[in-house]
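Lecture notes, unit on protein representations.

Consider one protein chain, 113 amino acids long.
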Amino acid sequence: MKLAVVRIRGDVRILTQVRDTLIMLGLKQKNHCAIIEDAPNVRGMLARAKSYITWGELDEKTLAALQKKGSKIVRLGPPRKGYGRKGIKLPFSLKGAYGDRKEKINDLLTRMM
């Protein structure tokens, strides 16, 4: 299973461990998207940087559209109509932006392309 991981916050006042984790995932700037395989060590990395990223399971249609744009790391634009109703500082479960979106990541990625 492939996961799409999107960085939603910048570098200001970020912990060194979190910054290193984001670089290992390939997310150097805001609005970058990485396509990665799901594994236990990747889930640990996602948990460490969860306040700065959002992720979910990719479907075939969105995966094909992302692969047209480039390699495993894709630069996207900001999403039309924003990340979430309450902004990037709350988890997705509370109508915010960060954290696990499951299959709803596909909607976000189509709004960012």
